[in-house]
Design brief:
The complex is a heterodimer. Chain A is mainly β. Chain A starts with a strand and ends with a strand. Chain B is mostly beta strands. In chain B, 0% of the residues lie in helices and 60% in strands. Chain B starts with a strand and ends with a strand. Classes of the chains: A mainly beta, B mainly beta. The interface between A and B is medium-sized, with 27 and 22 residues.
Chain lengths: 113, 110
């Protein structure tokens, strides 16, 4: 039990669909992250939120839209995706401040058809 | 720019010792972390080095040399369950975001 949950665990969507990924952390952390993990590529940071404020957008296409309504929840809204967006999307959280350790959720395996 | 390099695959036998190296080129380096990820699982934190030297946690140790932009993860008394991918990651000054290496797949054989 990592304390970070993600739903759904698997998602198949067409290029014209709109869907959302959800992440929830039960650790009392104040920072939350979205990462993309593709085969044969390093884990790529997408977005960082700290105290509900977006502090980093790593040049992510606008078809990915994050939302952080509070420090415990993080969403990733998806629309008009491309097949190359198929990947494992991982959410993570960490305490605010100087601690480095990040706690990852199990991920959502996304397939875009 | 930023880059991290680590070997793509390492194979070792049960009970052995294996060292996974990581070299990095970054600006504003703050610290080096290691994460483990089993197939189908989430990355889990193993260690963090901000200062030069060796940090030991049970069978796992991590080393950092800031002057050489180099670190390694040392796994001792290997067990089958240690078969996984191991990622080094750097925490850059002024950011809370990790930049990850491409991972080293460790296969432990009987």
């Amino acid at each position: 039990e990592t304390g970070v949950t993600q739903t759904p665990r698997h998602l198949v969507m067409g290029m014209t669909n709109k869907k959302s990924l959800k992440c929830e952390q039960h650790l009392g952390h104040n920072a939350m992250y979205w990462y993309k993990q593709s085969a044969k590529k390093p884990l790529e940071l997408m977005f960082v939120y700290n105290f509900k404020e977006q502090t980093e957008n790593n040049s992510v296409p606008s078809r990915f839209s994050p939302e952080c309504p509070n420090s415990s929840h993080l969403f990733l809204h998806l629309h008009t995706l491309q097949p190359e967006d198929s990947a494992l999307y991982l959410c993570a959280s960490s305490p605010s401040g100087s601690r480095d350790e990040q706690y990852f959720g199990p991920g959502t395996r996304l397939t875009v058809t | 720019g930023q880059s991290l390099e680590q070997p793509s695959e390492v194979t070792a036998v049960e009970g052995a010792i294996v060292q996974i190296n990581c070299t990095y080129q970054t600006s504003g380096f703050y610290g080096l972390s290691w994460y483990q990820q089993h197939d189908g699982g989430a990355p889990t934190f193993l260690s963090y080095n901000a200062l030069d030297g060796l940090e030991e946690t049970g069978r796992f140790s991590s080393f950092l040399s800031r002057s050489d932009s180099y670190g390694y993860l040392l796994l001792q008394e290997l067990q089958m369950k240690d078969s996984a991918s191991y990622f080094c990651a750097v925490l850059l000054g002024g950011r809370r975001a990790l930049t990850f290496g491409s991972g080293t797949r460790l296969q432990v054989q009987p």
